[in-house]
Amino acid sequence: MPFKFSEIQTEQEFRALPEHYQWNHCSSANNLKFIILSTYHPQAVSPHDHDFYELVFVIRGHGTHHWRNRCGDESTMEFGLGDCFAVHPGEIHWYTGCHRLWLFNILLQKTQLEEELAPIRDMANLKQLFDRPEKEPPSKLHIPPEYFPAAVEKINHLVGELSLRAQGYQTVVCNGVIDFLILLGRLHSRPAARNSVRTEIHDAVNAASLYLEQHLTDNLTLEELAGHANMSRAHFCRCFKLVFGSSVWTWLTQRRLELAKQMLATTDLSLKEIAAECGFCSSSYFSRQFKRYLKTTPQNYRMEHSLQYIRAFRFSGAPRKSGRS
What we know:
The protein has 325 residues and is α+β, with helices and mostly antiparallel strands. Helix content is 41%, strand content 19%. Strands 1, 2, 3, 4, 5, 6, 7 and 8 form an 8-stranded mixed β-sheet that branches.
């Protein structure tokens, strides 16, 4: 059955996790080269570690990441929408202060980093993620708003491939993970041809879109969004379409539908609950918009994409205790 996390649980009540995860605890399909999880954490997550690399991509909400290595060194890091960071094997970590936190977790074995990912390991951002010294805590990369929707769609597609396991799915997933890592590797590089005026417009619209991402379920106005970009309403609408290729409301609807797709696939919330959680005024309006943009109904999408084994870790046996405190 799908997990349904209760919103009334407090963040002090850690979601129970074993001390130590092994690769073969993550799925019954031990021949997978990459595993991608879609996880919702409305509360804190208790300390744990694992014998694989975990790349975390934050697609909703925010929280505090706590980290401790084998030497006992500790650190904390605030993270939020669009942030990515990596946890190495043997590093204990946990989350507190979770607010509607939704993550994509890409799990990688050491052999994958050494073999499939060898051609891109030298990219500076990826070295920052995977090759940092043992005593150095994780640092985060940030996927900017103009790339964020495409990145979410890309990983969501891979989660679906892992769920359905159609012929050739492993190749699709491997290639998709590599594409995503290349995107991370190329962050912070701007085309030289962009002039300062266009850069200012781009950054202003990005600031407004980030605010929009953080308030997807709020009843926002164009005046409020334009204010975050320090633009007039009309100028903001023109610049937004120039940067993102669609109107503000089309973009907002599509982002809300992306969130709804995650909930349909990974929870057993009703359509009414999902509509409210994603900022739609009613379940009927939500269903109409879903069918308009995605050419299927929410019910059919749930039946076709419900994650049978990727919703959460499932164990092939009792988890081994790590002996670490």
